[in-house]
Design brief:
The protein is an alpha/beta fold and 296 residues long. The protein has 11 helices and 14 strands. Helices cover 40% and strands 23% of the residues. The chain starts with a strand and ends with a helix.
Amino acid sequence: MYKSYGKVEALCGISLKIGGGVWGLIGPNGAGKTTFIKLVLGLLRPTAGEIRAFGFSCWEDSLEVRKRIGVLHERPSYPNEMEALRYLTLVARFYGIKKPDKRAKNALKLVGLIKFSNRRICTLSAGMVQRLGLAQAIVHEPELIILDEPTASLDVLARMEFLERVRRMSEEGVNFLISSHILSELQAVCDHVALISSGRILRVGEVRNLLKEFSKGFHVVESSNPMALTKLLREMGYEAWVDRGITHVKSQNAAVLARDVASICMEEGIDLISLRASISSLEEVFRRLMSFEGDD
């Protein structure tokens, strides 16, 4: 699928199939994440190719698609003088829900805002407003909820609280597609991720499998003299470097590496604290994939 704005290619031949669970659409600002979401919602038409959801064309049958999707946009706006419950009841009524007041209360309860039902939206904190947006997205019980940069405007505690709400809802069977450039936060809640950069998909897969793949062959060594240890490992032909006072080594043979590290430490009087396999993060995975792109 392609999407261009004049001569600018926002999406360049993307092919992606998203299933259930919590999916992360991950990449830097300007990667094409929001454009992809607008295409799913039928707000934009692909320049070439097709995008479908629930068996419907996202462009030709966009109303059918949007009935089945809840969305929290990156910069939503609300009637600030309206009470939270009244606003959400109007949203439920818009979807044609029977007993909209009851459904609105249920949604507020799910996101932890039931105690603030009668508060005007303008009096809610930023974190509460985002949870109200989540309630709006789930009020019609959609098959998929799309969150576009949901934590970008929140402080650390509000981010943690919001993502914890998402995690709990996912455990109850709610499906999510979360678009974000904050990789460290999504690692804890996403089952699968699609990493995107410059309008292209770099990699798609289960989070645990990607972390395992990009941890293979990398090790970390804690010692009393990391600079000296790293220098001697390099002299033995290892690819090694120091980061934040810890030696990082690339080796496909963990047993041989352990032997060589122990030998160096004994001969040089270096205290060996630990040697273990490196556990990768989504940030490291993305950084390495970007470096591979650069090599190409």
